[in-house]
Backbone:
């Protein structure tokens, strides 16, 4: 399978339109590479592409793929993805669905029942899209392997019980709202684990990562108090459902113990100093053999 990072930034992109932090200003000056918002795409051996999360930047991401002749166009209004997979119901991972409303066929969307409910009631994208191209919902059940192509099987696993803000008044605080994905190629036996939002790495998660050839993992924040320290937010990284990279309990220390061949950070917030070339934080990450993801980065497994 072929994996392409469409957007490596967290919500808001890099630079973020209303932010004057060091990273955003470095990007605006042309000294740091800009990034679109979190999403990846997977291609099977038969040529079909699968979109994992639909960011607000999906139109630009599709055009970037088209410019590199990633798609075999079959009609004047073809939908370039065989199906779409949503790991959560966050605005940053779902708003792009509205930009796909001009599809000539219903959008086939894999999502959990929690996500389906959120996108039907709290943020009614599914309900709205039914009046445009239509939606065919395909259940994404935890622990169940789903064949999304003859050569690809996908398994969802739990990551987060944190609901999106627009659903926080809903009951069921222990409900799973965010999932990760392990996608395996039946022919090459290559495996990818994708975890763009990660609050903890327990033993089960370590085993899953170690069994993967590539992990694309949450790199949102460098420190737990990153936003409060900058005076641009009140919640810590952990309160937002993201394990920070640094510190004794941070993800870098745990990633260093993994035998996984390829470890790449995605969903990186605009305030994270690893996005600044030659920063000390970036050097620390790269010295540990961990790659900092960027738009257009591709892997073959």
Residues:
């Amino acid at each position: 399978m072929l994996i392409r990072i469409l957007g490596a930034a967290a919500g808001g992109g890099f630079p973020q339109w209303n932010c004057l932090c060091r990273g955003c200003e470095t990007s605006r000056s042309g000294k740091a590479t800009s990034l679109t918002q979190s999403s990846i795409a997977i291609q099977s051996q038969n040529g079909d592409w699968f979109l994992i999360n639909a960011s607000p930047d999906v139109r630009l991401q599709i055009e970037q793929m088209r410019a590199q002749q990633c798609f075999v166009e079959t009609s004047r209004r073809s939908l370039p993805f065989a199906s779409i997979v949503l790991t959560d119901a966050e605005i940053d991972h779902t708003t792009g669905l509205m930009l796909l409303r001009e599809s000539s066929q219903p959008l086939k969307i894999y999502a959990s029942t929690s996500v389906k409910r959120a996108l039907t009631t709290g943020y009614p994208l599914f309900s709205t899209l039914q009046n445009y191209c239509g939606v065919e919902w395909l259940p994404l059940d935890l622990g169940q392997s789903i064949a999304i192509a003859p050569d690809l099987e996908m398994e969802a696993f739990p990551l987060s019980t944190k609901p999106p803000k627009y659903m926080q008044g809903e009951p069921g605080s222990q409900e799973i709202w965010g999932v990760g994905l392990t996608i395996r190629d039946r022919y090459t036996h290559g495996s990818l684990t994708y975890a763009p939002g990660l609050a903890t790495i327990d033993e089960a998660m370590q085993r899953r990562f170690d069994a993967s050839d590539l992990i694309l993992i949450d790199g949102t924040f460098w420190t737990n108090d990153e936003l409060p320290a900058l005076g641009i937010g009140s919640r810590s990284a952990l309160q937002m459902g993201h394990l920070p990279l640094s510190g004794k309990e941070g993800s870098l220390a745990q990633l260093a113990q993994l035998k996984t061949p390829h470890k790449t950070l995605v969903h990186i917030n605009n305030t994270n100093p690893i996005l600044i070339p030659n920063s000390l934080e970036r050097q620390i990450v790269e010295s540990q053999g961990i790659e900092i993801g960027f738009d257009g980065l591709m892997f073959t497994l």
About this structure: The chain has a mean pLDDT of 95.
